[in-house]
Amino acid sequence: MLFARNLLRNKTRTVMTVFGAAIGIAVYVTTTAIADDLRHQTESVIAGYDTEIMVQSRRAATPLTSIISAEDFSALKTRFGNNAVPLVIGSRREDWNSYIMILGATPQLVSKIGLIEGRAPVPGEREVMVGALISRQYGLSTGKYMSLGDDHYRVCGVYSVGSRLLDGWMMMDLGAAQKLLGRENQISLVMIRMTGVNDLGQLAKDINSGFPRLKASPAAEFVGNIRLWKTVDVFCKAIGLITFLGACLIITNTFLMAVSERTREIGILMAVGWSPLLVLRMLLAESIALCFCGAAVGNGFAVLMLHLLNKNKSVGLGWLPSVPSPESVGVSFVVALLLAFAAIIWPAVILYHFSPMEALRHE
Amino acid sequence: MNDMTFPSLSVTDIVKTFDGGLVEALRGITLTVAKGEHLAIMGPSGCGKSTLLSIIGALDYPTAGKVMIDGVELTGNSKSCLFRAQSLGFVFQFHHLIPAMTLIENVEAPLIAVGVPRKQRRERAGLLLSEVGLNHKADSFPNKISGGERQRVAIARGLINSPKLLLADEPTGNLDTTTGEAVINLLLDRASKNGSTVIIVTHNPEIAAKTDRVIHMRDGLLCC
Question: Does residue A316 share a domain with residue A262?
Answer without folding.
Answer: yes
